[in-house]
């Protein structure tokens, strides 16, 4: 027995190690590849400014992100990778959080949940963008862990850090608070042993408060170097409250779609688990159900919602799904080989179905006749249904049940992993990722290369040429401009403009005194979610392709910069 | 966000601030029967504002909603710290004071909501000084750090007591409402806060004395009777309303044989507009002018020797709230009442402990003194005039008790100076960053030789407050007056006589200084000659304002005062009564002190509270008597502002005293005298409520039985009448901060300085007259007016560029006002600058950074 336990523990450690490695790898690979969007750049620029010693009059509410990223920028170079590193690290640590709740969840459940967190598209997307989503989740879970294990000093520190998570904190805290309240009022409080926790809190609240305030004041100001960071804490709550009056334009349908497409396992199995618990009435499941319910309601009601908010719903759902899956992934019954074989058969048919669905919605498809694919899809699904009934009736319900569940689970996992890859921004068409905040910056590299080539040609430095951006004073452009030594911004087109390169948002009204050559670039793109047809939605779900709207920018280079021109030759030695 | 929701959010914010500060009030105002409950909102706002302002000034907080919220959290933390160990006492008190809490909460809510409706009926931020106030608020909202930029003088910080605007901006920041709505919500909120704080002062005075044998019943009665304080302070008005309807109806007017209306009464009364025949047909409804309600604030009339009229402002709270200028005297109201509450708490503390010896170190160890300094210092930042007044009340409380304990001696003067200096210096130190950037127009005191208040005007102004106070002083019984009457007469007469003598001496000194100056002017020593010139011109200016000089002036001044003695005689009588009562109290107290070892309890509760009311009356009398003889020298050169600020505070102080007197009179006297008093009181109330009854509908259109469109947006008129400009302002609001240039014109004209005001950008030059008032000099403005004119009119781009660079101008605004004020040469802008914004009436050019950066 001892040996088995020891082996099991080591195996578990290995698995958690694997989760850590996978989680870290998926979060760090090509982290700096995609340009920062406006939303990301707004934060990164502030950290950049603070690291450069500028006094920032207004802190964004994401104090934790800003302060840590400022530190990174101060020590290292300023890059997209570093701008996203803190969320990525926080996202990686979230994968290990289930380990802390092992006793409450059960070992297998915790392990499944950890894998889910490491591989899930939503969590990957949140971890690979500059912002506070993962910070908020990490420290909220850390506070829950510290409180439930009555470590008040830790709880205080984590609470302080949690409050540095900006607006995201409140999106998570409020539904959780409501869920705890409802659970307390209508259901059993005692079963969670919260009474003991409360009693312990009453004796230790001073310690808790002291550490919370201390962490908030000291860490919130980067060891008192940036005291204005304190305002950021209040700013988070204010931004959250203002969100009730500022619709973001993200529809409820988009939220649900993202959940189904990118988080099918946690959504589907979590939902089944929550329905199942109504019968069983297990306290943990009940609480997780209530939490996910209020998180979802909050998502629906909150006008400033964004797709990443589904993380607060998927967190309890993932717990529920992991509980269910841990009971389904049992291999110690008699007919497991038969169930496994049947599962493989089901998977084959589901794959066949998938292939036909893909063919049916293939973007390049020109055939008008869709009948063969539809018949094939229906036949395959019919086979699965009939086979389940027949096997369950004639042979064994267990074999039928496990077989179809495993087959379905593997099929969903494939779909899920494909979505995760896309959500992480590692696949093709990253611009159609619904978890991405704001417009996708599309041809920044091309723009940079074009300016760099011209610059190198004329001033022998890829960043030295004077550039003026007119009417493009946006964070993403500011971030783009940071690498150039002579890059200026103006709001209006000046008739007497003399810059070597001029960037404008429109070609209308641009009249230069000298000769300039122009080229357009797709600067920002995003899917036209509101105008997509059902077919386009299916294509997006399968291939992640969607019709795009884009914002162009125009690069105007002075004629004299090009080889062969008179002036150009004059300036060259 | 709907305006109803905004209104609710403001209520919730201020209520939250109040309840978060309640533990602090509970601890520090513990000697008050209400434990500071009614002051907690004012205290909360003041402390919250202080924390936010100070930390933002030092760069520790940001001037945004996050910083504001952090300030509130910090305040809650401080409050919780002082709450430690006292939770159960707090809980018990809450349980036993439901009636008080419910009444106070209802009063606050009703006052706030009702004035929100009043504001919604006439929300325009356009006339009088509203543009200035909105400009300050917008500048504070948009300033990246403190001190906030001066919206009307780019490159400089605000040089004005702007704390009230910081508090309003703070609430706007947190609630996220537009400033044009926040402005009106602010006025309504201050109305509610004033009502609550006034209620609090009177409740604490009345609690325990209305039914001496049954404290619980007395407390219950006080809950109701205390409502008289907000009535007297906020609603009761001067008698101009009564005069207005009498005038409109043609009372005291007779037709002469030519059919022209004539009246010796109205001519004698000598109030502007009322001395002219009423418009016909005669009616009980005044229809003199569109701004009918304005006259109430100008019943006092000053004439110089040449009988030229000098404007005197005599606002009273109802007028101020009806006018709804968010001026410092209005913004200070809840806080001066808080200061009065603090003084009352200090006063009541001596019921339980002897007055402490004047020792600086001991006083500095007491956290109550620090809180007092914070509150009194805040008054200076809110409305500097109030600082010495309420510090005087605080010091007066100490002297009063020291007098009761130790009797009179010159040491009592020392006591007064000790408290005033200790708390005053602390108060200044706590707000030091404000003083470092503040320059005042005040330049000492001048004798008010020819200018004085005629008795009839004084009574028109103060009769609703004076009569209850005088009745109370008289009817309190001979027992209180007679023993000290001799001293009362002596002191009262001496003070008035001293005023006369000092005024005459000071006037003679000024005359003499002028004469000396004239002789020095011819001296060989240039310094002496320059000094002589200064003396001569100052003396000359003084006598120019007086309308003459020499014996004629002195004779006329004396003759006028003797022929119209109503004011100083009234005040002398009040002083006599007050001093007589104080001396009597000392005798009673001294007697009880000798007879018992427990001096404090030996004096009946009512007699103890009486002392504080006497101090309020005394301070009010001092404030109204002082400008009879002296006034503060400012840019106007007259006593307009001195009367305005002093009379306004007198209204508050006497308002409490009158409410207290009324409660006692109506409660106590049930005999024949009581009947007469009640009849007089009812008539007086009826007369003094005519003004609100007539002027509120006249200004707002409410209560006329006709539909009134309601909006709280003070800029809605702009959107309706000047949509192009409104659109331009909205656009500029979103643009980065930069100096904006627009047409310069006369002050009080809302067409000028409108861009800086509404767009929240620092304007190159706004109302010049106001800048001079704020800074006491025109030096900072330099040649801006001429340069702006040149900038618009010149066709020379190089000259224009020079001006742009000199002032670091970023936005050049060309709207209808600029086109009518100047011959705008726009080509130079369109040829050299980028057109940032354009619609059919407005064009805004932006100066590129490259051009501005060339500024040396």
TrEMBL record, chain A:
TM annotation in the entry:
14-32, 81-101, 107-126, 133-149, 169-187, 208-230, 250-272, 284-304, 310-329, 336-354, 374-396, 408-427
Name its species: Bellilinea caldifistulae
Please state what the protein is called. Answer: Glycosyltransferase RgtA/B/C/D-like domain-containing protein
What highest taxon heads this organism's lineage? Bacteria
Q: Does the keyword Amino-acid biosynthesis apply?
A: no
The UniProt keywords, alphabetically, are: Membrane, Transmembrane, Transmembrane helix
Q: Does the keyword Transmembrane apply?
A: yes
UniProtKB/TrEMBL annotation, chain B:
Native organism is: Bellilinea caldifistulae
Record-given protein name: YYY membrane protein
**The keyword Transcription regulation belongs to this UniProt entry's keyword annotation:** no
The UniProt keyword set, sorted, is: Membrane, Transmembrane, Transmembrane helix
NCBIfam families per record: Chlor_Arch_YYY (TIGR03662)
Which chain regions cross the lipid bilayer?
Answer: 6-29, 41-61, 67-88, 100-118, 153-174, 181-202, 222-246, 330-348, 368-401, 413-436, 456-475, 487-506, 568-589, 610-626, 646-667, 679-698
Q: Which InterPro entries match?
A: DUF2298
Tell me which domain of life the UniProt entry assigns to the organism this sequence originates from.
Bacteria
